[in-house]
# Entry
Amino acid sequence: MPSPERIDDQASGLRDMANPRPVQVIAVTSGKGGVGKTTVAVNLALSLIRRNRNVMIFDADLGLANVDVLLGLQPSRNLSHVLAGECELSDIVLDGPLGLQVVPAASGNKTMTELGAAEHVGMIRAFSALSPDLDVLIVDTAAGIAESVGWFSQAANEVLVVVCDEPASLTDAYALIKVLSKDYRVTRFNVLANQTRDTAEGRELFEKLERVTDRFLDVHLLFAGAIPYDRDVRKSAQQQCAVVDVFPHSASALAFGQLGRKTAQWSLPTAPSGNVEFFVERLARLTPASEGAV
# Structure
């Protein structure tokens, strides 16, 4: 864990950020891949924009990033170039649909999954320059229990765990919640059931997971809702678009709209950590730093 002096050094300049309003930071994660986590993150982001929020999505699956692919964006540079000192974070931010801002990470770059202390400090400093007019930052983490998932989840205001009706999905979601609660002190989780037949099935999946966590873990689970299985999701993905953008009246798009309404009602961080400083400074306290980090 970094020393207090190192934390102060990492977070230097953050207090000069002119951001008078609170920013909601939501980590979207899952116990396993293939449950539609990134699809959820993107469509939630666009649903919040439709509710007049300024939203940025950070692709935090650092080695297998695909938010840009899902949206048909073609970044010339990504977070790896920022960490290499080749450009600033503002230079890589992409303009997505409806005004969505996207911070792309690298795909197929193993070194991004093995960041050292200096790179973590560099990432923290890069994010200190986030847009001052931001309302919501959605962090699309990697799936599973990688260390970065723990850092981002603990630094966020809210954690949204995506599950689907597969035994491995629920088992791995429980494992993720266990790790986040025991190792990273995250105690509240919002659970979203994806690709369900109806809301009742989603509620049933949630209750299965809740029964196990109530028995073995000291955590609080909240049912965030259910997204129905919808062929329009696949069609939109083939078009490299979000379903709420190209099929706004589809069953899944309407469900994402409901998720956006619920998310917009989640409590915001309060002073003194009532803006992006909350995320960046907490991340500074969580990520490793060595004596040689600068």
Observations:
- Confidence is low (pLDDT under 50) at residues 1-19, 271-275, 289-294.
- The radius of gyration is 18 Å.
- The CA atoms of residues 19 and 132 lie 5 Å apart.
